[in-house]
C-alpha cells in the first residue's frame, strides 16, 4: 500500500481544514474507541476514562500531534515516527489490531466534523494514511 | 442470541427512521468500492467502475446499494432474531456469491462513516457504539452459515 501524490494532497488538505481542532479530534476519537471497543481500555488502567477526562484530552492531543507530524513528513512517515515506533515496540506493545480501531474512530470524528470535506476520494486517502501510520508504529514489533 | 438493551433498541430504531435508505445505501456501497478497491472483484458486471466519479454515478451501484441497505432494515425489524432472518442470505453469500465475510465487516464500518457524516453530532459515542454492535451482529449472521 503506497500513498500516491493525490493521496498526499488529499491528506494535507483535510488536515489543514481541521486546523487547531485536530487536538480535540484526537481526544474524541479516543473516547469513541473506548466506548465502542471496550478491550482497548485495557491499555489505560491508569487513566480516568470518563467523559471529559483531562487525561484522555491530553492523550488525544499527543495522538493528534503525532498524526500532524506524519502529515508534515508524509514522504517519510517511518522516519518522522521512528521514535514513536520504538516506543510502541519496546514499551507500549499495543496489539496491532488496535491501530485499525483508533484509525476507524478518527475517520468517524472527521466525518462528523467535516462531512463535506470527507468526499469518497479523501476518505480513501485518509484511510490509507491512517493504515500507513499504524503500519509504521508496529513495524518494529518483531 | 444477542441481547439488546432498551436503550440500544431505541438508538437503532430512532436513527433508522431518519435514514434515506436509497441514498445511504448507494453512498455506502460506492464508498466501499472506492476506499477498498479490491471489493470491486464482486461486481465485474456492473460496468464502469474506473474512477470514483464513475462509481458514484453508476446506476447498478446505486441500485445494489439500496438493495443491501434495505435488507439491513430486515435485521432492524428482527433484532432478536437476526441469525434466522439472514440464514438464507448467508447461504447465498457462501454458496453462490462466494463473498469473504471480511467484506461484511468492511461494509459495516463504511456504513458507520456514512451515518457519521449524515447525522454529525447526533451520532454521539453511545449511538456509534450501538450501531457498531449492530453492524458486527449483521456481519456475523451473514457469515454464520458459511461452510
TrEMBL record, chain A:
<dbReference type="Pfam" id="PF00042">
    <property type="entry name" value="Globin"/>
</dbReference>
<dbReference type="GO" id="GO:0031838">
    <property type="term" value="C:haptoglobin-hemoglobin complex"/>
</dbReference>
<dbReference type="GO" id="GO:0005833">
    <property type="term" value="C:hemoglobin complex"/>
</dbReference>
<keyword id="KW-0479">Metal-binding</keyword>
<dbReference type="InterPro" id="IPR002339">
    <property type="entry name" value="Hemoglobin_pi"/>
</dbReference>
<dbReference type="GO" id="GO:0005344">
    <property type="term" value="F:oxygen carrier activity"/>
</dbReference>
<feature type="domain" description="Globin">
    <location>
        <begin position="2"/>
        <end position="142"/>
    </location>
</feature>
<dbReference type="GO" id="GO:0072562">
    <property type="term" value="C:blood microparticle"/>
</dbReference>
<keyword id="KW-0813">Transport</keyword>
<keyword id="KW-0408">Iron</keyword>
<dbReference type="InterPro" id="IPR012292">
    <property type="entry name" value="Globin/Proto"/>
</dbReference>
<dbReference type="InterPro" id="IPR000971">
    <property type="entry name" value="Globin"/>
</dbReference>
<keyword id="KW-0349">Heme</keyword>
<dbReference type="GO" id="GO:0043177">
    <property type="term" value="F:organic acid binding"/>
</dbReference>
<dbReference type="GO" id="GO:0042744">
    <property type="term" value="P:hydrogen peroxide catabolic process"/>
</dbReference>
<comment type="similarity">
    <text>Belongs to the globin family.</text>
</comment>
<dbReference type="GO" id="GO:0019825">
    <property type="term" value="F:oxygen binding"/>
</dbReference>
<dbReference type="InterPro" id="IPR002338">
    <property type="entry name" value="Hemoglobin_a-typ"/>
</dbReference>
<protein>
    <submittedName>
        <fullName>HBA protein</fullName>
    </submittedName>
</protein>
<dbReference type="GO" id="GO:0031720">
    <property type="term" value="F:haptoglobin binding"/>
</dbReference>
<dbReference type="InterPro" id="IPR009050">
    <property type="entry name" value="Globin-like_sf"/>
</dbReference>
<dbReference type="GO" id="GO:0005506">
    <property type="term" value="F:iron ion binding"/>
</dbReference>
UniProtKB/TrEMBL annotation, chain B:
<comment type="function">
    <text>Involved in oxygen transport from the lung to the various peripheral tissues.</text>
</comment>
<dbReference type="GO" id="GO:0043177">
    <property type="term" value="F:organic acid binding"/>
</dbReference>
<dbReference type="GO" id="GO:0005833">
    <property type="term" value="C:hemoglobin complex"/>
</dbReference>
<dbReference type="GO" id="GO:0072562">
    <property type="term" value="C:blood microparticle"/>
</dbReference>
<dbReference type="InterPro" id="IPR002337">
    <property type="entry name" value="Hemoglobin_b"/>
</dbReference>
<dbReference type="GO" id="GO:0005344">
    <property type="term" value="F:oxygen carrier activity"/>
</dbReference>
<keyword id="KW-0479">Metal-binding</keyword>
<comment type="similarity">
    <text>Belongs to the globin family.</text>
</comment>
<dbReference type="GO" id="GO:0042744">
    <property type="term" value="P:hydrogen peroxide catabolic process"/>
</dbReference>
<protein>
    <recommendedName>
        <fullName>Hemoglobin subunit beta</fullName>
    </recommendedName>
</protein>
<keyword id="KW-0408">Iron</keyword>
<dbReference type="InterPro" id="IPR009050">
    <property type="entry name" value="Globin-like_sf"/>
</dbReference>
<comment type="subunit">
    <text>Heterotetramer of two alpha chains and two beta chains.</text>
</comment>
<dbReference type="InterPro" id="IPR012292">
    <property type="entry name" value="Globin/Proto"/>
</dbReference>
<keyword id="KW-0813">Transport</keyword>
<dbReference type="GO" id="GO:0004601">
    <property type="term" value="F:peroxidase activity"/>
</dbReference>
<dbReference type="InterPro" id="IPR000971">
    <property type="entry name" value="Globin"/>
</dbReference>
<dbReference type="GO" id="GO:0046872">
    <property type="term" value="F:metal ion binding"/>
</dbReference>
<dbReference type="Pfam" id="PF00042">
    <property type="entry name" value="Globin"/>
</dbReference>
<dbReference type="InterPro" id="IPR050056">
    <property type="entry name" value="Hemoglobin_oxygen_transport"/>
</dbReference>
<keyword id="KW-0349">Heme</keyword>
<keyword id="KW-0561">Oxygen transport</keyword>
